[in-house]
């Protein structure tokens, strides 16, 4: 994509994973409500491309999206235990502001950071813990309806539905990435669920790169590495986006201290 790309929530974990590998690949605009320390801003990004703004601020968001071709929308409250007033404002209202501004500014595509918690209630007592183990063949593939495990998950499901609306009614290309568990360097230790939905930093950057490069209408995909343990299919991300992950949590199964 030759046009600038807006990255919201740029100072957070997912934003930094993306910038670590793709800093020089796009003409980035970075938005975060917290001022970004110098070390979080790639050298290639000028000061006037960094926006300290809240995603619920219509005017600030319109200014940031003016002239951009794509948006990666990450900003929001990421806590599974976040209270309703926070997810209502930061996640639902903020995501609405982004989609509405994208349409007004003529942006081509938006990649929205959804979450495993939008579908967390599929992990029923009778399915777990087998679900998290390599022999289990149960898969969610993105065609199933949301089944949130908490109010944070409700807010992510709401973002997906907002994306559906803006695609169907305004022809915006939208991909919702149900991100698993992003951790740096290795999967979470002693946490089978986290290992089944691990997303490595480099696979994360590659996946969002594909979200900017590929052609699609409206998609819901899972954002995990190519883990041996998995209950999310990554077939749709492979087929539609050309996602080709490198990592697999099985290669890190044991904490060195337990070996
Ligand atoms: N880290 C993970 O494993 C997963 C993350 N996600 C989603 O990915 C997105 C990013 O998550 P992380 O990077 O882990 O979170 P984070 O908390 O590290 O980063 C979020 C960033 O967004 C900014 N932000 C929050 N509310 C804002 C607002 N109203 N306006 C402007 N900026 C705001 C924060 O200042 C922060 O820099 C979130 O939407 C989260 O729900 C989804 C699934 C898993
Ligand atoms: O959506 C998110 O999911 C990950 C993984 O969930 P967890 O319940 O296994 O921790 C979480 O770490 C992250 O903060 C959240 O935004």
Automatic annotation (TrEMBL):
Residues 5-182 form the NAD-dependent epimerase/dehydratase domain. GO terms for molecular function: glucose-6-phosphate dehydrogenase activity; NAD+ binding. One of its GO terms (biological process) is glucose metabolic process. The active site is at 152 (proton acceptor). NAD(+) binds at residues 90, 115, 152, 156. It catalyses: D-glucose 6-phosphate + NAD(+) = 6-phospho-D-glucono-1,5-lactone + NADH + H(+). Keywords: Carbohydrate metabolism, Glucose metabolism, NAD, Oxidoreductase. Pathway: Carbohydrate degradation; pentose phosphate pathway. Its EC number is 1.1.1.388. Pfam families: Epimerase. It comes from the Archaea. Belongs to the NAD(P)-dependent epimerase/dehydratase family. Catalyzes the NAD-dependent oxidation of glucose 6-phosphate to 6-phosphogluconolactone. Homodimer. This is NAD-dependent glucose-6-phosphate dehydrogenase. It comes from Halogranum amylolyticum. The lineage of its organism: Archaea, Methanobacteriati, Methanobacteriota, Stenosarchaea group, Halobacteria.
């Amino acid at each position: 994509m030759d046009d600038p790309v807006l990255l919201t929530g740029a100072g957070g974990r997912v934003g930094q994973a993306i910038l670590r590998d793709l800093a020089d690949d796009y003409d980035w605009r970075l938005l975060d409500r917290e001022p970004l320390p110098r070390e979080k801003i790639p050298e290639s990004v000028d000061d006037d491309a960094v926006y300290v703004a809240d995603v619920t601020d219509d005017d600030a968001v319109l200014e940031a999206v003016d002239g951009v071709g794509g948006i990666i929308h990450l900003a929001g409250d990421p806590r599974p235990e976040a209270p309703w007033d926070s997810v209502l404002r930061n996640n639902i209202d903020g995501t609405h502001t982004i989609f509405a501004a994208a349409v007004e500014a003529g942006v081509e595509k938006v990649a929205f950071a959804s979450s495993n918690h939008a579908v967390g209630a599929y992990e029923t007592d009778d399915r777990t813990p087998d679900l998290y183990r390599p022999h289990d063949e149960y898969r969610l593939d993105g065609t199933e309806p949301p089944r949130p495990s908490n109010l944070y998950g409700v807010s992510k499901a709401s973002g997906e539905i907002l994306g559906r609306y803006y695609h169907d009614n305004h022809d915006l290309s939208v991909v919702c990435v149900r991100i698993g568990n992003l951790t740096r360097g290795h999967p979470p230790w002693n946490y089978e669920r986290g290992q089944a939905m691990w997303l490595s930093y480099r696979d994360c950057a590659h996946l969002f790169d594909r979200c900017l490069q590929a052609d699609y209408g409206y998609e819901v995909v899972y954002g995990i590495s190519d883990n041996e343990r998995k209950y999310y299919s990554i077939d749709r991300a492979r087929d539609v986006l050309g996602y080709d992950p490198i990592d697999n949590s099985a290669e890190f199964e044991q904490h060195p201290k337990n070996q």
